[in-house]
Design goal:
This protein is of the alpha+beta class. The protein is built from 5 helices and 14 strands. Helix content is 16%, strand content 35%. The strands form 3 sheets. Strands 3, 4, 5, 6, 10, 11 and 14 form a 7-stranded antiparallel beta sheet that branches.
Length: 223
Amino acid sequence: MRAEITQLHQRVGGNFVYVTHDQIEAMTMGTRIALMRDGHLQQYGTPREIYEKPANTYVARFIGTPPMNLIDAEVEGMTVRIGNSVLPLPDKTERPGAERPGGGSRMKVWLGLRPGALAVVPPGQGKSLPGTVTLVEHVGAESLISVKLSGVHTAHDDDGGLTDEVMVSVPGYSELRVGEAVGIDCLLKDFSLFEKDSGLRVGGRAAEDFLAGGRVGTIRTAS
């Protein structure tokens, strides 16, 4: 059905408005996506913009299968601390705090990493995060690995449920086994930073712009 509608659009031209709850339809058919939640606009942009630069934590978890991992972290200067590991940030990283009156450069954030931006390595290698394999799913061209991290929290649902697991995608058929100790490397090439309190993307639109439109989708956590 997706192919038929796309071909019809190409033949007829003009503007089509297509309403769907299926993110795959939205990503493959749309040239622009208006992502809504409870009647309020969360983000408007191209499929690539929404996937690569989600405006908030709701969009980050909604778009993408498996969804983006949100890892509890703290940014200070040009480094990010995850548990006991301190990693350098790329030079062009949009950092929190600099644009705020009286704000410093230290801030608690959600570090957003797609499953393909994490790598499974031997335990103790470099600055990897220690963890234990909890699930291995073979889905053909890739394997999906769930890893329970040690001393690091993650946010995996919109109701504030904290866990300590991340999802990693690896090519081919993984030989990893449940219960195996591993390390997780965070590949800080493609990532997002979100403000811990508001859930908004660091360096994205100002919080006031989103709040003016109504409810903002965020990860809400109890203190």
